[in-house]
Amino acid sequence: MNISQTRILAAAAIAALLPACTSGRYEALAERVDSLMAPLVAAGEFSGAVVLARKGRIIYQRGFGMANHAAELPFTPDTPADGGSLAKTLTAAGIWLLAYEGRLDVDAPVTQYLREYPHAATTVRQLISHSNGLPPYYEFWDPWFAPDEVRTTQKMLEIVARELPAPSFEPGSRFEYSNFGFDVAALVIERVAGMPIAGFLEQRFFSRLGMDASFARPGRFADWPGVRTMGYRWRDGDWQVVDVFDMEAFIGGSNVYFSVADLSRWASANVRGPAIAPGAFAAGQQRPLIGGQPSPITGLSWYCDDRGHRCYYTGSINAFHGLAYWDRDRVETVAFVSNSAMPPWTTITLQRNLVAAAAGQAVETSPPPEFLQIDEAVTAAVAGVWSAPELGQLSISRTESGLRLRAGSGLEFDMFQVSRDVLYVPGPDYWIGFTGTDAPSAMHVRSMFVDAVASRAR
User: Which of 63, 157, 159, 339 has the most CB atoms in a 10 Å sphere around its CB?
Assistant: First the structure.
């Protein structure tokens, strides 16, 4: 790591004493955002930091709560926190940057760059488009690692070669959210660039864009310099630790730390141009085809509207959640990080409200619906076809591995239960809850760009 974690955290502690940006014409915005955050902070649902920017200028920034309660370290806009899947946007940018420089072919087999990769037909593009047939969950590797053994991408890849010599499906034929695909893509970057991924990120992105608080984490907590930002949840009148995992030295799909100020810089770099070369950006922002259908996630790992002008990505791991959002028409960005295990519906609603507040639009203040608890009976009852004017038909099927969702005749996606009453669907980035009296009669679907209530069609 090329930066001093101790220096950054000391500066962050000083910054905690600073008020939000409230000068001049932004006073009303500050009051509006503060009013959004205050009840969440009071309820123990949010600690973290928020930054809003317009045309590269910060129009709101503030930290809330504590980054580390034991160390009495306040959370500020300069506090680094676990970014979860937001690391994917950097890994994808690195792949497309090397492709633009003529050093890498995204449609070449992965084996052209990693001779040890076990699946000969998989391309680099499929690694970063969630269509590679690799193990989708890190739990796959648990039987082969001791609790005190550091997990590296290289070691994990060796286990895949031994235990899964063929992909679980034909690469490019279906969507399956893939963390490890991005870890392997980062290993490709290392081989092509001739340097560790941590150094590549520092050289090509962090240093150039002024992201001074961002870094690829060390594998062992014991090697962590300075004070580490911890994850918490408010339970029984106290903050309880909900930690991330030790012994993780795989970088690419996760395990990159950002401050919210740096996430704002990263979002601004994408909205204003200098994130990567324009030619690399244009190629990477295309939606990859999976089974003949366009993916909902671009090749640069952003969720975007139909024009590609409003884009965002999120990262969640245990108590941590982060958002980086950018709007090319308004030249606005919204970023936040949290270490407080926010409830799922609160999370997506806050994301939408911060974007609306930055744009001067109405925010939602009503409480969430009383969703049905997702138990075996509800899981069985929701299978079928649902319809909403904004989305058309949504088909839910029940398989041995769980529920799957298909929009129209498009791609099919796994549905994951993330709380007692909310499902999450990676791919379209839908948060779903059901209401009804004795059985589900309405399906509530919310994302950054969708807010719909579907009724049963059949």
Answer: 339
